[in-house]
Design brief:
The protein has nine helices and seven strands. It is of the alpha/beta class and about 290 residues long. The protein has one domain: Glycerol-3-phosphate (1)-acyltransferase, CATH 3.40.1130. It has a seven-stranded mixed beta sheet with strand order 1-7-6-2-5-3-4, with helices on both faces.
């Protein structure tokens, strides 16, 4: 009877703790959703107008950076950049990064300090006005169901880019669900070789603890953006493309720290809470 009683008390305590965590998650989602909506409403018109009227898309990108700073602020998320000296201002890159969280986008926009455009799935073009604004801002749209057409779209997109503007690629294709860095797809590397554009390897640490895939509850914390040495794509050809991909992936993995931000997460206040899985260790990232 004593054992049964203790078991029931333990279950009751666990259920109450789970209920508290769920309540905190709801509070986090509501908090961020409200402020993100406010920022979007305020900045949507000027950002759309900038995309439609600007010949370069640079102004629209700068406005989106304001939005990113705001969302990071109300989420109590801090970002830092390491080895920023590797980035040469005014130089175009194919920026290649691992992808752990939606907050990767905010971290990159606010830390890199350069103008870049995204490779975006073509379906976004169907969104009235907003889709055209993204197109007018010189972002690149691709059909992910057809590799040949995707590469053709990327080439056309590069022809529209202003001088000195880079392109951001998440070569894993989607966010990691378990913290491992997945194999890289080839699409973003073809223009690097064909147009002799240097590849800039970028590693993002800590974003999965802030907002893992499948969750809406943002947790306060830190995100680190680590810049690797630029890779001269002129040293490679289409036939040696796999070597360029492997070298880029290895550089990103070498700078990947699965434990980044963990102490801060344990010590943070009410906005942190529990949840999210521990990423795979460095030895399991292959």
């Amino acid at each position: 009877m004593v054992i049964v009683s203790r078991h029931r008390r333990a279950v009751s305590i666990f259920e109450r703790a789970s209920a508290v965590h769920r309540l905190f998650d709801i509070m986090r989602v509501t908090w961020l959703g409200f402020w993100a909506a406010v920022a979007t409403i305020i900045l949507f018109v000027p950002m759309t107008a900038a995309g439609l009227l600007s010949r370069t898309g640079n102004l629209a990108f700068n406005i989106s950076r304001i939005w990113a700073y705001f969302v990071l602020g109300v989420s109590f998320v801090r970002c830092e950049i390491m080895n920023g000296k590797h980035i040469r201002k005014g130089t175009s890159y194919i920026i290649v990064s691992n992808h752990q969280s939606l907050f990767d986008i905010l971290a990159l926009v606010t830390t890199l300090g350069v103008q870049f455009r995204w490779i975006i799935k073509r379906e976004i073009l169907r969104v009235p006005l907003f889709g055209y604004a993204l197109y007018a801002s010189r972002n690149i749209f691709i059909d992910r169901t057809d590799t040949a057409r995707a590469i053709e779209s990327i080439n056309r997109g590069f022809d529209r880019l202003p001088e000195g503007v880079s392109v951001m690629v998440f070569p894993e294709g989607t966010r990691s669900t378990d913290g491992r860095i997945r194999p890289f797809k080839k699409g973003g590397f073809f223009p690097a070789v064909l147009r002799n554009i240097s590849v800039l390897p970028v590693t993002i640490n800590g974003s999965r603890r802030v907002l893992p895939k499948g969750s809406l509850a943002v947790r306060s914390g830190k995100i680190q953006v680590v810049i690797g040495d630029p890779i001269d794509a002129g040293e490679y050809t289409v036939t040696t493309l796999d070597e360029l991909i492997e070298r880029t992936r290895r550089t990103i993995m070498d700078n990947f720290d699965p434990a980044y931000g963990e102490p801060a997460r344990r010590e943070a206040g009410w906005f942190t809470g529990a949840g999210g899985q521990r990423p795979a260790g460095r030895e399991n990232l292959q």
